[in-house]
Structures are given as C-alpha cells and as structure tokens.
Amino acid sequence: MKQLIGKTAIITGANSGIGFEAAKVFADRGAQIIMAIRDTAKGEAARDLIIATNKDALVTVMKLDLADLASVRAFAENVKNQHSSLDLLINNAGVMTPPYSKTEDGFELQFGSNHLGHFALTGLLLPLLKKTADSRVVSLSSLAHKGARIDFDNLDGTKGYKAMKFYGQSKLANLLFAQELDKRFKQSGLNSLSIACHPGISATNLFKFGKRDAPKLIKSLMHNFLQPPEMGALPTVYAATDLRLTGGEYIGPDGKGQRKGYPTLDTPHAAAGDEAVSRKLWEVSEQLTGVKFDFTETATQ
Questions:
Q1: Is residue 297 included in any domain, yes or no?
Q2: Number of folded domains in the chain?
Q3: For 270-301, how does the pLDDT look when each residue is reduced to its tens digit (9 = 90+)?
Q4: Is residue 298 part of a domain?
Q5: Disulfide check for 36: which of 12, 65, 72, 227 has CB 3.0–4.6 Å away?
Q6: Running DSSP on this structure, what letter comes out for residue 145?
Q7: Domain of 157: which CATH number?
Q8: Which of 161, 167, 238, 250 is catalytic?
C-alpha cells in the first residue's frame, strides 16, 4: 500500500523508538522522510537501517535541536529552502524526567523541548503546511497528561522542580497545543488537520537508567508488560494517515487503561478541556518563542 507516494513527512526524533518505527512505515508507504535529529550521526545510522530493508526508501537526515530555538529556526529555513510543500509534521521527539536542567534559551528542559520547541517548529513551518492540501500535524502526548496542569507561575522550575510533574505538564501542553491548533485551522478555513496521539506505555529509550541501558531483568519486565515500539507507533501512523479523521482527535491504544493495543479514538483527561488555559498557553508560547502563527492564507487545492 503506497498511499504516501509523493508526500513529504518530517518526524522529529526519528532515529529511535516510536519515531523510528513510524519512519519505517511511512517510507514503506512511499513518503519522502525527513528525519529531524539532534545527533545526526545517530540519524544517519537509523536511515541506513531503513534503507537496508527498503532500498527504495526516500530518507534524509537534517539536524534539529528542539532545546535550542536558533536550531529550530535554522532547520525550518533549510526545509523551506529545499521543499515547496509539507504533508505531515510529526511532533514526536521528547525528553522524560531528566534532572533539573534548562534549554539554550533558559526554559525548563522538558517544557522547552517537548512543547516550546515543537510549538516554534510548527509555527515556522506553517507556510508550507498552508500551501499543502490536506496537510496534517500530529503531536505526541502521553498518559502522563492525566491530572497534570500548566503552572504558569513556575514554567521554568525555579520555584521548585519535580521531574515527573514537569513531564506531565509538558505532555498536557502537547495535547492542548494540538487541540488549539486544530481549532485555529478550522476558524481560518484551512483544510490542514491537527491531531494528538499517545503510544500507551511503550518500551522505548525514554526508559533509561542514566547513561546505562536498563538491567536485563528490568528489560524483560518492560517487554512483558509494555508494548514494543512498533506497536507504540501505531497511534502515530493512524493519526497521520486515517482518512476518517477530521481534526482535533486524540488517538491511543484500545487495551485496558489505554496502555497497550491497537489505535482507536481516546478521550483526553478533563485537564485538557479548559479552553481558557489552552488560549493562555498559546499566548505564552508565542511570547516565549517569538514565533507568531499566520493563518491568513488558504491551502492550495
């Protein structure tokens, strides 16, 4: 099934885990893949793995560090200089529960990378998305958004930092952004779609033990109770390609607790339903990144 022939897809963090598995599927379906990677050596190794099993795969690697807005701007300019359209933007990359640290621009690392970096990237690539009929933006959230809240008085963590709490905040921000982006697409009459998804609980390299791999026993337990990355990637693929979706949906696994299984429509936690918070997050994100979204032009049919 080559339903993506002639289409261009950007996947952030495509060198491993869910991003890598999604890249393989999109390449098999004929898309031209841009792997947006912080470490280009790892990206090239991942690209070589894809080409080794699919000699016709169209895969390029471009440097993108979501924790550095200068890098985000440079990446977006490079893409716009090389491409006249963009069918799929997969906001996949993420960091999970690091020790307290900051991005190049002084943001708390998880909020800065997981949300603000992708917010800026999407806004800077919006001219291409608007020019491309039926383009889609897919943003990865997480079960960790449940019960989280956006602490506007402590976004940088200087008033206290708990790694998991800030991870949940960043994943709630991803979901709020995806929903608000779709509303603005529709209000502007654009036929682009914004869809959120989550992988359930997937055994990816987000589960690391410092710089070491997980111990063998932990790895065994992970693979018994967590779904493998190729399954975790299915909600991403579904959100990016299913023609029944109309925008604004949240896709996740269909199993118990939405932790494992095949993709289906999921219901966000009530924390994601506050429209005032969603609008305020958008405004704050524009202020912090300096990126304004221009929805004025309509997509080319």
A1: no
A2: 1
A3: 989 999 999 999 999 999 999 999 998 644 44
A4: no
A5: 12
A6: G
A7: 3.40.50.720
A8: 167
The tally of CA atoms less than 13 A away on the side-chain side of residue 283 is 7
Tell me the sheet residues that pair with 91.
Answer: 139
The pair phi, psi for residue 281, each rounded to 5°, is -60, -40
Q: For 261, left (φ over 0), alpha (ψ -120 to 50), or beta?
A: left
Is residue 24 scored above 80 in pLDDT?
Answer: yes
pLDDT class of 3 with cuts at 50, 70, 90: confident
pTM of the model: 0.91
* DSSP symbol at 155: T
The beta-strand segments (E) located in the chain are 8-12, 32-37, 58-63, 88-91, 136-140, 193-197, 250-253, 263-265
CA 37/CA 16 separation, integer angstroms:
10
| DSSP code at position 223 | H
- Report how far residue 56's alpha carbon sits from residue 137's, in angstroms, rounded to the nearest whole number: 25
Q: Does residue 2 belong to any structural domain of this protein? A: no
Residues in the chain: 301
What per-residue string of b and e applies to 18-39 under the rule 16 or more CB within 10 Å gives b?
Answer: bbbbbbbbbbbbbbbbbbbbbe
- The residues, ordered by sequence, that sit 6+ positions from 232 with a Cβ below 8 Å of its Cβ are 17, 18, 21, 199, 200, 202, 203, 204
Query: Of 159, 36, 183, 65, nearest to 108 (Cα)?
Result: 159
Exposure b/e, 148-178, CB count within 10 A at least 16 = b:
bebeeeebebeeeeeeebbbbbbbbbbbbbb
The residue type of 159 is K
On average, the pLDDT of the chain sits at 91
Query: Active site includes 167?
Result: yes
Q: Tell me the two tokens of residue 174.
A: 């991803």
Structural domain containing residue 228: 8-289
In a domain, 244, yes or no: yes
First to last CA, the chain: 24
